[in-house]
Amino acid sequence: MSIIDLKSALELNKISQGTVFINELPIVRSGKKSDFMIGNFICRDQEVEFRIWEPSIFQTVLDNGPGIYDVEVIGNSYNEKEYLTVRSIAPSLNPELDKSSFLNSIPTILLESNLRRVQERLTNLGVTPKCWALIDSVINDPFLEGRFQVEGAAIRYHDNVIGGLMHHTTKMLNILAAMLENNPQLRASADLLCFAVSVHDIGKVFEYNNLEVSDFWYSSHRVRGIEYLARFKDRIIDDYDEEFYRQAQAAIAGHHGEYGDRPTTVATAIIHYIDTLESQATRLIQELEAAHGGRIYDRDWGFLEGLRLGES
Question: Can you give the pTM of this predicted structure?
Answer without folding.
Answer: 0.76
